[in-house]
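Ticket closed. Logging final result for Protein kinase domain-containing protein.
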Amino acid sequence: MSSFAISQPTWVGNEPYAPPSSRTRSKRKLAASPRTHYAATATATVSHRPTNTNAIRKHPSYNDKDGHLIFYANTFLDNRYKTISIVGKGTYGQVFKCYDVVLDKLCAIKVIRAIPKYVEASRIEIRILQTLREHDPCNQKRCIQLRASFHHDDHVCMVFDLLKMSVYDFMKHNHFLPFPLYHIRSMGLQLLSSVAFLHRQKLIHTDIKPENMMLKDTNSKQQPLTVFDNEANQPVTVQRQVLLDTDMQLIDFGSATFENEYHSAIVSTRHYRAPEVILNLGWSYPCDIWSIGCVLFELCIGEPLFQTKQDHQHLALMEKMISRFPTHIMSHPRAKRYFDSRGLVRTPDDADIDDIETIQMAKPLHSQLPQQNSLPYKQFADLLYKMLNVDPNTRITAEQALQHPFFTQKPEPSFCLR
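Final structure:
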C-alpha cells in the first residue's frame, strides 16, 4: 500500500470542492465508543488440531479486576475451541480468535465480562441473534450469524465466523481516502437491505458505523486519485486501494433493541447519533437511517460528517449543514432549551471559540461532495438529504431508500471510474 504525506486532501472535480472545516481523526476518537472487531490478524500457519484428546487443556478461569477473562493461548473453551489470540476488546468483554476442532475452521468468540449487567445484556443479544437467524437462515441479509453459544464458568461466550476487517480499519489503512462512488452504492444497498430486514423484525440496531461493518475480503488493487495538496496549493496524484469485493456483514447487536421493549435514553456513537436522540424526544427505526446517511457521507469524503463531542455544537452543525429544525421539534418541552427566540440552535455561554468557529465555517452538505454537477452525485446528495432529514417523522425509511434513483437507475459507463 502506497504511503504519502499531504495535508487535508480534497478532490479535483468539475466544480470547486469545499472540504469540511476540519479533517482531524483525533476528534473522532474522543467520542467513539470502544470498537469490536471480529477480524483476522496475521498468524503463523500451524496445525491447531489436537493430536490426542487427553492433551486438551481447559482454558483457566481467572478474571482480572474488571471481570474480563484472562486470556491463555493454546487452551480450550467448551472442549472444542482452541484459543489463538485476542482480536478485540470493549466494555462488554473481549473477542478471542479461536480454532474450532470440530468444524476444522477459525472462528471468533465473544467472551462477555463476568459482570451481571453485561451477562444479562448478552442474553438479550443472543435472543436477538437467534431471531435473525430464524428469519434468515441462509444469511442473505448480511447480518452476522451466531453459530453457537455456551458458558465458561461465569462468562457467556458467543461463537461467530471470523471476518477479515472492518470498513473503518480499511479506511485507516487507506489513509482515509474516499471510496469510489460505485462502492458507496454497493455498500449502501447492503446496509439498507440489512436494516430493512431488521426493521421488519421490529428491531433497531442503534449503533451503525464503519467499525460495525465487516468486510468478507480485503483483496484490493491500486488506483490513482487526484487530490488537492493545500500546502503546495496544487493538485497531486496519489494511489488509493480499491476493494475487489465489497461484500460485508453488519455486526455488533449488543445495543440492538426490539421496538416494543425498553429504550435507553442515549444510543449510537456520537458521530452517527440522530437529532431526536440528542434532544431526548424518543427514538425508533429512523435513528438507524440517520446513522447510515452519516456513514455513506463518510465513505465518500473520508471523514465523519459531524466531528463533535458536544450536543449544542452537534445540533448547530446539523442546522448549518442540513436544515433548520421544524417548529414542532423546537417547541417540544425537552428540546426548547437548545433553541433561542429566533428558532436557531442556542450557543452556550461557555462555548469554546474553536467550537464556534467550526460551526461558522461549516458548509451545506451538498457543497462538501465532489463532482457536484454530475448526475450520480446529484442523486447521492438527494439521497443523503432524505436520510438526514432532521425530522424523524418525515425521514426516508430503509425500504423507501432502496427505491431511490441512486440505487435503481442504471449508472452511466463512467460511474465505475469514480
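Residues 13-35+165-417 form a domain with the Transferase(Phosphotransferase); domain 1 fold (CATH 1.10.510.10). No further action required.
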